[in-house]
Automatic annotation (TrEMBL):
Pfam family, one: Metal_hydrol
Keywords, ordered alphabetically: Hydrolase, Membrane, Transmembrane, Transmembrane helix
Tagged with keyword Membrane: yes
Keyword Transmembrane helix: yes
Superkingdom of origin organism: Bacteria
Protein name per Swiss-Prot or TrEMBL: Metal-dependent hydrolase
Transmembrane spans: 212-232
Molecular function, one GO term: hydrolase activity
Amino acid sequence: MNAKVNISNRAGASFPVRRMNFDFDQVPEYWMNGSAGLTHFMTGLSALFPDGEKLFIDAVRAVRYYPAIKDNEELQKEISAFIGQEAMHTQEHVNFNASAQKYGHDVRTLERITGRYIQFALSNFSKVVKPFGMTREMVNLTATTALEHFTATIASELLRNPHIQDLMTDDTMSYMWFWHAVEENEHKAVAYDVYEAVFGKGLKAYSLRTSALVFAMALIFILQSYFTLRLLQQDKKLNFKELAMIYKYGYSPSKGIITGMAGEMLAYFKPGFHPNDLDTVQLLKDWKAKLGF
Ligand SMILES: [Fe+2]
Ligand SMILES: [Fe+2]
């Protein structure tokens, strides 16, 4: 594993910010078990992170000094650590995405497409919900809570699914994804707590957060599938064998990472839902020990 870990908990939050410094130079082209399909599937996800995580940071920052939470010292510390962790994730995914570029995989264009689609989706969604008194800040924040639920859920599935872990045959890449997965679960409640504290738990807040989840999941599915197919096609590896691998480890009922997270995704629709209802305490304890945190 090529990484230096620098852990800081100056914010005094319930979780630290770990400054990583991965060296992606030695990562092989098809680092996911030698499979182009599986590698591009993960690269398609990685392309979503730089602009996605920028949205999360900006959305929480935009409301952090609202009267409802500005004097909540505990939540302010959690927000600072949340911003710190997401900023580190962005930095490492940007570096990994740039390193994939050297093999001729055009991830930079995918990052740009992600940025454009996020803005397009948010501005159109905001127009639709504006007549119901929902502001752009509320939309940005609930897009964040929806996507944070997605990232925490896919992350905990990754930490539980031995079939996927076995395929992560490169030490640097597996460490990066496990580190990110642990932290997504450490901070999974922060944006949600901010949303409820600022915009409440009423019918309006509930209908916005649930419709945002449906909308956000459709967008992620379309973008990530398009990215995977585009990377495969540019790589001249778009064939039945690679697609079958993606189906088996992405979508099959027994081994798929996406199918494995379906139940927890649906929990978000419960009226009294809170991210900590999905218990990952022991899972995180085990993984932090394994990763040496
Ligand atoms: Fe993240
Ligand atoms: Fe996150």
